[in-house]
Amino acid sequence: MPDSPPTAPPAVARSRAGSGRGLLRSLPALGVVAALAVAGMSDVSHVVRPGENLWTIARHFATTPQALATANHLPDPNRVLAGTTLHIPSAAAPAAPAASPAKPPATALPRPATPLPLPFTSHTVTKGETLGSIAAANQLTTQVLASINGLADPNFIRIGQVLQIPLPVLGTVEGLLVYYAKADGVDPALAEGLAWQESGWQQKVVSPTGAVGVMQLEPGTASFTGVNLVGHSVDATNVQANVEAGVAFLAYLLKAGGGDQKLAVAGYYQGLASVRARGMYRATRQYVADVLALRDRFAARVP
Questions:
Q1: pTM of this prediction?
Q2: 16 vs 174: CA distance, rounded Å
Q3: What is the Cα gyration radius of the chain?
Q4: Exposure check for the chain: N or C terminus, fewer CB within 10 A?
């Protein structure tokens, strides 16, 4: 892997390409708040769009669903209607963008110390149940259910144990990729294609250099992403945290590259500083072509 300047984020390891499934379109980015922040106006409002929830809105405004619920007197932070005008707490308004977008922010965003929650229900294990039977009953995979609940041995669960059950769409790698891509304003098809190129959507894949999981996060990338992008430590062995961090890192590269998908994908593979200093290596060009071809295949799918 080429060397990069200390201020540049580390590159992410590579894997082999494959094919994929499914697509949901991303939500449009929220641009109003940035313009208001530049003008010195920190007390802003936001009209909820179809498909948005407090979590996605909070993420764009660097706050929390709880803070938004409190500021707007919402009894249930998991429910907000399209068309509702939300008051954004003044402390949540982001600062104007830095002069050099390639540099990471000086401090982490104000986020919880653990991964932001997904919509879950709970299930208490009863006699005769297995993780596989519970996963099948909830339209999930055993691998994802075990990873979300931190189970080292999916063949061992206890009667009376309480498991967190995500909504079916979030109980698959594809669902997680789409969910976090929408939250970060990334084209879901691009995130899906890149993840398939990296690992074939396999959380158990570990590269010879120590890159882990669906997004093939190197230890340095996981650390950088945790401190500077998602605001909590990243356990790359957890499929939810792995996808959240990998997609956040892709979003960072897209922003740093002015929205250029080819440059962002190349930066994910080779390192953005290296690409800018040396251009794309031959292997990088092939990697980019493979990812964009996969992106197009996902985008062409009919849900």
A1: 0.52
A2: 18
A3: 20
A4: C
